[in-house]
Amino acid sequence: xxLVRELLTSQGLSASAASVILQGWRAGTRKQYASYLKxxxxxxxxxxxxxxxxxxxxxxxFLSELYxxxxxxxxxxxxxxxxxxxxxxxxGGGTFGSHPLVTRFLRGVFNTRPSLPxxxxxxxxxxxxxxxxxxxxxxKLTLKDLTxxxxxxxxxxxxxxxxxxxxxxxNNMVLTKDRCTFYIQELLKTSRPGKHFGKLxxxxxxxxxxxxxxxxxxxxxxxxxxxxxxxxxxxxxQKPHDSATTDTVGRWLRKVLENSGLxxxxxxxxxxxxxxxSAAKTVNIxxxxxxxxxxxxxxxxxxxxxxxxxxxxxGSFGTELLHAIDA
Length: 327
Description:
single chain, 327 residues, mainly alpha, elongated
C-alpha cells in the first residue's frame, strides 16, 4: 500500500519501521485495502485534493460516491472505511472509521442496503456423507476422487475454513491408526497475539471405514508421496502436482457438493463449515466440541446463531458427528 507507506515516512518513520507497520495488516487485508486506496487516489486527483491531508467530509463524500455510482454493498463500504482510516486523520482526534459522521453514514447504508447472511438455509450433511460412502475402497479410487473425498472428509469433520485446510502440512503431521494430528505453523484468519489455532486433530471412525478420515488420509499420503514437490498435505492431482491453493481447495469442495446433488449456484465451499457445525447442533454435540473443532473462542458466537444451551463437555467433533448421524 504505497499511499500508507508514503504517509508513514512523511511522519518521520524510517523505511524499515514503515515496512514493519505495514505488516500489521495481513496480506489479504492489504490486497483488499489497496484497491480502495487506488480509487481514493483517483477520486482525489480528479478534485485536486491531497489524499494524505483530506478532511472527514471529503472521505464521507468518497464513500457516498462508491455507494451511489458503483453500487457497493455495506460490507464493501465497511472495508473502504477501514482502508481510509490510516490515511484520514480527523482534526478533533480519533480515527476516521469511528468518526460520528462516518458511523452514521454506514448505519444508513446498512438500513438501505443491508448485508444479509449468504446462506438462508443449510444443506443436510448426510447427503454428502451418502455420496462419499460410494467412493470406496480408497486404494481403488483415482487420485482425483481420492483427493476430493479426503478433502471433504477433513473439511466436514473439522468444521474448518479452506485457509486452514490449505495450511495443513505433512511435515507437521502425526498419523497413527487411531488419529491424525496436524500442528499449524502459520497464521490463520483468527490468529492474534495470545491466541492461535495451533492443532487440528482428526480421529478414526472404526464403525464405517467408508467415512473414516484417518483411513483416507493414510491412503492419500501414501499415493502422493512419490509425486510431492511440496510438503503441503493437499497437492494438485494433475501434473506438476503443485501444492493446492486455498481457491483450489474451495473448488474441490464445490465439486463434491455438485456430485452429491446439491446446487452449487446456491452453496459455496464455505457452506461446508456451516453445514457441519449446524448438523452438530441438531444432534446435540457439545458446544465445547464444536468450538474446539471450528476454532471459535467465544460461545456467544455460536449461541447467537444456534441458540443452544451451554455445555462444557469437550469431545471429538468429527467422530461424535458421524456416530450421531449413523445412529
